[in-house]
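Practice problem 4.
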């Protein structure tokens, strides 16, 4: 019988190679990131804040109207 000349890697060597490959891949992915300019960040922040204020005012108005309607219904029921 012919014996195999391929030497099996032990557990720690395999895991070490996997870990190093993972970090190499992470480094390559981080290089692909395109960061926004400060102007774009400030513009987008402004859009988000305005949207939050508008939605908050809408919910406040809807809540006020519904509470007044509920108050009218409760007074009629008495």
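Answer key:
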């Amino acid at each position: 019988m012919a014996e195999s000349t391929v030497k099996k890697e032990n557990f720690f060597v395999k895991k070490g190679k996997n870990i190093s490959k993972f970090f190499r891949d992470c480094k390559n992915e981080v290089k692909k990131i395109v960061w926004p300019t400060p102007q774009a960040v400030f513009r987008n922040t402004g859009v988000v804040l305005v949207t939050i204020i508008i939605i908050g005012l809408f919910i406040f108005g809807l809540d006020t109207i519904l509470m007044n309607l509920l108050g009218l219904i409760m007074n009629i029921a008495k």
